[in-house]
Design a protein that fits this description.
Elements lengths: L2 E9 L2 E6 L2 E2 L6 H15 L6 E6 L5 E6 L6 E5 L3
Parallel strand pairs: 1-6
Antiparallel strand pairs: 1-2, 2-3, 4-5
Length: 81
């Protein structure tokens, strides 16, 4: 099972959260960014439907796989120091 960490950071004159180096929108307060990160982390753990997915690799080969709707990551929120 994978693990995703949401980190609360100062950003663009306010606060945001990051996941794997990608920033959320900016929030005017730390509390708002923290609440948004907790909400996003909770939603990411919710199971979905199992579905077939298709994708093409760089060498032009198409692949079909089954993506399990129950294969959700563990999530956590790290607050700013």
């Amino acid at each position: 099972m994978s693990h995703v960490t949401y980190k609360i950071v100062e950003h663009d004159g306010g606060w945001a959260y990051t996941v794997n180096g990608v920033f959320s929108e900016s929030y005017p307060t730390h509390a708002m960014a923290l609440a948004a990160a907790k909400r996003a982390a909770t939603e990411q753990r919710v199971p979905g439907r199992t579905e077939a997915i298709m994708y093409e690799t760089a060498d032009g080969v198409w692949h079909t796989e089954t993506a399990s709707g129950s294969d959700r990551p563990e999530t956590e929120v790290e607050d700013a120091p």
